[in-house]
Amino acid sequence: xxxxxxxxxxxxxxxxxxxxQIFFYIYNQCVSTYHRRINxxxxxxxxxxxxxxxxxxxxxxxxxxxxxxxxxxxxxxxxILSTLLKFFNYQDLETQSKILSIKYLELYExxxxxxxxxxxxxxxxxxxxxxxxxxxxxxxxxxxxxxDEIRKxxxxxxxxxxxxxxxxxxxxxxxxGREIESIDSKxxxxxxxxxxxx
Length: 198
Prior knowledge:
Radius of gyration: 25 Å
Strand content: under 5%
Helix content: over 70%
Strand order of the largest sheet: 1-2
Number of domains: 2
Order of helices and strands: HHHHHHHEEH
Largest sheet: 2 strands, antiparallel
């Protein structure tokens, strides 16, 4: 092939593209999950705050001791919900997941477009592979937390696909013409697994 392209390099790029597509899908799921969790905290807060605020305008209700205690308790509950929302940091996680999903989609589209072209019309294979590797490393460095439930949901829906190393921690190492396990085929201990977490 021209421009140093070979079937081996094309396979590597195709694997990277599949990995990027998986990350895009998973981070998209993260955005939906975090958005839903934010609503769990925000919607009750909005409703309770609106009701208590409206009742406080009625002086007859506000002057009743028991009702004032109830309204104060509701305000405390709203404050607790707001504090928990900040503690779990769902809004920042949602934003970070959204940014990463977009970047992984852009990376996937880039590789998909490059592989769709005739080898003669592509940029140099080594140059392109280095560029893609750097972009992947940058995205890895900005890795965001992914909930276990999302990993499990992906595995149940896509049994024919393997999670990327960043998500599954353990994978096979590909060598030309064969592949080997990253660790012994026996069930590893927790310490062994932790040592392979990227």
